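Technical note accompanying the year-one report. For the benefit of new consortium partners, we illustrate the data format agreed upon in the data management plan: each record pairs a sequence with a structure-token string. No post-processing was applied to the example shown here.
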Amino acid sequence: MARSDTAGTWTVENGAGLYDLDRWGDSYFSTNSRGHVTVQPRGDRGGSIDLVDLVKGLQERDLGLPLLIRFDDILEDRLERLHAAFDRAIAHYGYVGRYQGVFPVKCNQQRHVVEQLVDSGQRWHFGLEAGSKAELLIALSLLNDPEALLICNGYKDQRYIETAILARRLGQQPVVVIEQPDEVERIIQASQVLGAAPMIGIRARLSSLSTGRWGSSVGDRAKFGLSIPELLETTETLRDAGLLGDLRLLHFHIGSQINDIAVLKDALQEAGQIYGELHRLGAPMGYLDVGGGLGIDYDGSRSATAASTNYSLQNYANDVVATVKECCEPCGVPVPTLVSESGRALASHFSVLVFDILGNGGAPDEIPVPREDDPLIVRNLHDTLGGISQGNLQEAWNDALKFKQDALSAFRLGYLRLPERARAEQLAWACARRIVKLLPQDDDMPEELHSLRASLASTYYGNFSVFRSAPDTWAIDQLFPVMPIHRLNEEPDQLGSIADLTCDSDGKLARFIEGGKSKTLLELHTPQEGEPYLLGLFLAGAYQEVMGNLHNLFGSTNAVHIRLAPGGGYRLDHVVRGDTNADVLQAMEHDPDLMLERLRLASEEAIREGRLGVSDARLLISHVSNSLQQSTYLQA
């Protein structure tokens, strides 16, 4: 049951509070008087969209659920917030340098997403970070600002490096970051062949440790970066090759979703000193890239947990600016242009996955009527059910469990028939329901009785794939806010977990937000006959799309790009149709035309043998042909 002391006076505010919307919504998500979730794409600057009305409008445009709704205004607002925070910090601390960010393409490589960030970020000369050759090609094709940085990370072969050098001649600003010692020689060779050098960066492998889920990815055994001896050796090698004058950037990274600001301060102090030493060794430098890791508050707890952060965006900017200044100015080193690769903090909020519930199931709630021929075990359970009172809850549950076990043992030995065993189980569940109804709200009762609420929970079957749309919930136990997007003015009457469409026991959502912590069950409403029950999964705009897989061949969902329209309402900017069954079959190297032809031949043979009528064969072929062109998800 819902956690509530409202005594029948449930309000929309109670609904928003139940799902902690005010904690993680960050001014982008709230509710209205109709009990619907609303989206404020520009935060507190005005403009609102009713999410339920939006979904209905999109369905009228033949865009079926599940739907991935991207709010481009939120992307732009996140960019503005990031730059405003650094502008305030720079002004406050009298920092004589500037801030210039880049977006890590790996966070969300979708064309419309990257295009929107590049377009919205032009006023700040906002750039991109590429971690592979394919991402480098994306960045080269989209960046048209000669002042925007293109940070080139990841493993690099000769063609990758030569491409970056040639792009510099085009007027772009690619920075080839040395992440492995063997890349130094390839950069030197490419520079000699082309008669030009790239802007060069070095990634330092800091000794400063991180915390949280990605804490083990940094330190002395990190996958990328140069140790201090390697860094010094690289500097001398570049000097000997006449390329030290092209060493312009120091880069470090201490893990994604940094949850504790103290970790960042330690890393900044170490990196700031390294930056100053490189400058004193003769490298012109000019840029300090503090990497990614700027976290978001998934659970609203504002704490140093894996799903949260103990700092604000402004706190982050202040510490970066102040710490770098403190490292450089006393040594007479000019302060660098500050660069960050914030992806999660920019993209997480801007998309919402909306899916419908296909049905729900749980413990049976029917109570069988006593019969004269009931065996003793069933009669005992009837008596136990009738005798439950506030004073004997534990005793009654012990009896119900014993009689239920007796029924199972008798069935195994052949003394109990299947209908009789079914009645025994129904009565045991009825005992559990009655006990839960009488349980006090305090914690004085034994844990066994309180856990009955969970055992009575329902499974809600969602029209989506966890592995496609929220793979981190399965892979790393990432916690995303999940809640109904309507009926928030009604008190939920069920507890449940959410199962997806895949034939996999891991295809479920079973961790939910509660008061800055997590719980295994979510308060939900009983679905109404003939009415859709819509849920939203929030803050999943970073990494989930590209990391999603084709488990059970559930493909990408329909996706739309929404903007607030002048004068109110919304504008549908882009529609990206989800995968059809034919699309995912072809991805697995199946030929849909050949599949249809094989089915046609099999149908002709069945017709000749009298096993299949012509009209039924035509219907079968029609169903298969239409299915190939339809979404991989269930349709009304």
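Partners are asked to follow this layout when depositing records. The two ends are 30 Å apart (CA to CA).
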